[in-house]
Amino acid sequence: MRHNLKNISDRIATTFDFTQRQRKVLIYGCLLNFLTFMVGSLLAPFYTMEAEKRNISVLYVGMVFGASGFCYAVFHTVFGKLFPLLNVKLSIGLGNFFSGMFDLLLGLLVFSPTPSFFIVSSIILQALSAIATSAVQTLVYSMFCTEFGEKLNIAQSMSNIALMCAFILGPVIGGVIYRFFGFAILYVLMGILQIVWSPTVKWMLPVEIKKYNSKNENPVKNKVETLERILHPSTANSKKDATFWSVITIPNVIFNIAALYFALFSFFAIVIDLQRYMHDVFHMNEIQIGLVFGIPPLVALIFCVPVGAFTDSYGFKREIIIAGHFAVSIMNFFAIPPNYQRFWFYYPGSFFLFMCSIVLLGFSMIILFIPTLKEIIESCFMSGIKQNAGTNGIASGIWASSMAAAKVLGPLFGGFLMQVLHFKIGAVLFICACLQFTVALLWSLYTIFIEPPNHRYETYAKILHKEDQSARPTQVEVST
Length: 480
Prior knowledge:
Blueprint: H1 2-15, H2 20-40, H3 43-53, H4 58-82, H5 88-107, H6 115-148, H7 152-181, H8 183-197, H9 201-204, H10 223-231, H11 244-248, H12 251-281, H13 286-314, H14 317-335, H15 351-382, H16 389-420, H17 425-450, H18 455-471
Helix pairs in contact: 1-13, 2-6, 2-7, 4-6, 4-16, 5-6, 5-8, 6-16, 7-8, 7-13, 7-15, 12-15, 12-16, 12-17, 13-15, 14-15, 14-17, 15-16
């Protein structure tokens, strides 16, 4: 028992063993994630308040959010395809600079003469800012895939710590600035911060990182690629280059994207009415509602590193994703009772089930968010596609676009059902849970009957891990 625990701890410890180059990339990625997502977390609460002061309807505010989300969904894929052709440092620096410029100009819209000028200018500036930010995020995701290889999940989980901290601290910091100085100062400060930050990419990232050539292999080997060369040496070098359609048509990629998409889609479909539901049914005040919304990122913050370390050390990525998707869909069936909306059948709702679903939401976001990108890249290689910068860029773009699309289509779907067809929040969540459960069930059947896991790879992974451990040089103390 003690020997097994020591093997587990040693195996997980090697997951955190980064090179100096990887540490530089990881530190920059974490700081960049914190800055960009902190700025992004300010738009929904404070822009909406500023629009209400000008008597602008929710419909037009939704158009601003929709334009931003649409640009994210489209240009994540575009910049993922362009990843091997771009100078990474220059592109990230320019993306940060222009994103800061557009946010600064957004803050100056408080001086706009008319509400129509305010809303039209907001749509244009938010669309342009989304294009610049999508370039930065996609290039960083692609760079992580190329630099970290087999340690992608743990690197991504550490980056997510910064992301979750940004979502927790962003509205708090923004609320203080907005309360005492107003909307203009808030966005002008955020814009200046991004502009000042943009040149740091030149010094913080390693000197040798400029442009990734799609014809070259990853600088860090992935175990799946190594195992493929051991098992099938004659076909390992006959892989084809990645294209958008060759990646998106792989069945396992489709299921990964669908699982991630519908998990986010379900949340964003009900978020527009969730605050009113908590107030009417559970009689929560504004402070309690704010605390409930802070639970999912807090849970994700706690579990992101353990999930990343476990999936990098032991695999089982697909099984973990499917299990998480099943758990979320089942909990969503009972989170908000459909009888509240006079739906199909009756069962009493409870505050306990509702809070369990909120906690599980944060945990499921990590389970679905961290392993999916690595699973997509490995599925590409196992389907005959080269594992290089071009594949990493396309996979990162598709992965990020699916999340952005959920943020756009989820509120549209929920708003249509609730405002046009007069469905209530419980009915909408029930429908979303059915969609989630269907995706999880189809993926399970596909995994069991059509593409079962190849246990040879697990066996060879253990052999390679033992070889890595035995080949690791021992530290020798030198006396002077």
